[in-house]
Amino acid sequence: MPDPRWLDEREFRAWLGYRRMRLLLDAQIARDLQSDSGLSEADYDVLSALSSRESRRWRLQELADRMLWSKSRLSRHVSRMEERGLVAKEECADDGRGAVIALTDGGMNAIVEAAPGHVESVRSHLIDLLTEEQIEVLGDIAETVLAHLGAEIR
């Protein structure tokens, strides 16, 4: 086994800073979202994905894959959202074992009401703190890492 390629001071600063920033930023934005709208990050992610489609529907497995969740985890979460009237589970027309998650009118209203506060939180805790150049670099970094991991930004 080859010797580890330890991080130098500059690399360690970047890595540790990224980790700490991500944890604190995610926590703050999640608190703001919950406080402003009563939605969790997971609720917002599901509603956002559903509202991004013209049909306002996703197959359960496709949505689970998009969110990097197991199908069973998403199914349990969607059941809780269904109880709150945000989504509805439907049978899949072409696969009797599959399920389709549909955005309800209540879910659409929830995401429309939550979005302005959520984007303001993202702006105030990240975007507005950066210069135009830093935003460009951050986007480039994200695209590079996501491409390496076989993912896309959207």
Automatic annotation (TrEMBL):
Domain HTH marR-type, residue spans: 1-147
Domain of life where this protein originates: Bacteria
InterPro entries from the UniProt entry: HTH_MarR-typ, MarR/SlyA-like, WH-like_DNA-bd_sf, WH_DNA-bd_sf
Pfam name, any one: MarR_2
PROSITE patterns tied to this protein: HTH_MARR_2
Name assigned to this protein: MarR family transcriptional regulator
Lineage: Bacteria, Bacillati, Actinomycetota, Actinomycetes, Streptosporangiales
